[in-house]
Amino acid sequence: MIKTRIPPLSLAVCLALLLTSCSAWDPSGQEGPEAADVIELTFWDENPGESRTPYYEELFRRFEAAHPGIRVNYVGVPVSFNKQQYDVAIAANTMPDLAAVNAEWIADFAAKDALLPLDDYYAAWPGREEIPQSFIDYNRGLVPDEKLYQLPNTLYFDVLWYRADWFREAGVGAPERWDGFFERIRQLNRPELGQYGYSLRGGAGSITQLTSMLYAYSGQSAYFREDGTCTINDPRHLEFLKRYIGLYGQYTKNSDILNGYKEMVSAFDSGTAALISHNFGSYHDHMASLGGDRVGAALLPRAKDGSRVMVTVANGYSIFRSAKHPDAAWNLLQFLMSEESQTYWNAHVGQIPTNRRSLESGAFREPALIREALAALEDPKTVRLHMPYDLPNYAKAVKQQIEPNFQKVLTGELAPELFLDDWAALMERTYAQYHHEE
């Protein structure tokens, strides 16, 4: 029997529950004596919602049917403070058995000794041949000890979602160059009708989106130069940033400064924005709200020199070191990594599987956008930007300093030049500290 629980939507409440051991919600997942022959596992989902939770619940039903001695307790951690809640659980030693873990968190959690190395399990797993070695090598490269702390099950990157019906009415197509991107936003902007040309992400997650767009615009192929200096303040990035923030308030709603991904997706699906930038994960939201005839999608435009730089993210699953039943947790993890599970999950949430056999199935070769995306990824000329997720303080720096500073840029409190220079300096200090400690 799957137990599903969604914690309260307030970080303060969650903190109070953790610190006072309130019985309303126990992050450990232990809710009383269990039968001696039944193992209970607690799984945390870092991004619950209608477009994801039902599919996890179905996967766990399938798993429990095949493993009657194991029960899965699903806990959805609200995306607005998921990292903070994981951090609190680690500090209080109330981690779940296993969880969905973002790639940018791996280095931080490993540095805190919170994750269980998966190397021995992985080496003995027959299904390892179905996962491209490049994913495994990348994850091992995120930590100094080069151990495997996460197995990736889903790949995604940002694309442009646009209102195909509005574009047809205006007699324009999807933008193929960045000049076209800005021109389409101006053309489709009708604030008097409550319709804006664009909805930007000014709140949680804004920097991931902005980074993808900066490097796609510039064609800059590396986040750090060989001497450890950061390329984020490249002059071409400043050029883009000035054009981008110029959209705010005139071609977007003023409330966009607070947008996380859900608010941004809602603006598009409700008909208040003609265009947004988001990953494949919102595909089914768009289809359910608007239907396929009214939704179009395209890769981010190439740089001026014709190069294509993409920021790809492969999220997946980790087992926490405190897990009482690590073998059972591994059984669940390998089940989630299987061809059948990856096909079911990724096809429903609109993302790309990491399992080779799953990827080769018709479910991921039929949609035009997926075909175009895979062709871009397989193109030897495409550069996949190596993000600095190996820096343990990267996620913290983004959340506590860079995201708030971006909001200051939008309101005019901080000059875009200073924003990029400060961002670069922060990354360079973090880079130098990390490599000094290696």
Layout of helices and strands:
Blueprint: E1 3-5, H1 11-20, E2 39-45, H2 53-66, E3 70-76, H3 82-92, E4 98-101, H4 106-111, H5 119-123, H6 133-140, E5 151-156, E6 158-163, H7 164-170, H8 178-187, H9 206-218, H10 235-245, H11 261-269, E7 275-279, H12 283-290, E8 295-299, E9 309-310, E10 313-319, H13 326-336, H14 339-349, E11 352-353, H15 356-359, H16 368-378, E12 383-384, H17 394-411, H18 416-437
Parallel strand pairs: 1-3, 2-3, 2-4, 9-12
Antiparallel strand pairs: 4-10, 5-10, 5-11, 6-7, 6-8
Give an overview of the whole structure:
The chain is of the alpha/beta class and 438 residues long. It has two domains: 3-155 and 314-377, Periplasmic binding protein-like II (D-Maltodextrin-Binding Protein, domain 2, 3-Layer(aba) Sandwich); 158-311 and 384-437, D-Maltodextrin-Binding Protein, domain 2 (3-Layer(aba) Sandwich). It is 43% helix and 13% strand. The chain has helices at 11-20, 53-66, 82-92, 106-111, 119-123, 133-140, 164-170, 178-187, 206-218, 235-245, 261-269, 283-290, 326-336, 339-349, 356-359, 368-378, 394-411, 416-437, and strands spanning 3-5, 39-45, 70-76, 98-101, 151-156, 158-163, 275-279, 295-299, 309-310, 313-319, 352-353, 383-384. The protein has a seven-stranded mixed beta sheet, sandwiched between helices. Strands 7-6-8 form a three-stranded antiparallel beta sheet. It has a two-stranded parallel sheet with strand order 9-12. Helix 9 (206-218) crosses helix 10. The longest helix is centred in the C-terminal third of the chain and has 22 residues, at 416-437. It is globular, with a radius of gyration of 22 Å. The model is unreliable at 6-35 (pLDDT under 50). This is ABC transporter substrate-binding protein. InterPro entries: Bact_solute-bd_prot1, SBP. It comes from Paenibacillus mucilaginosus K02.
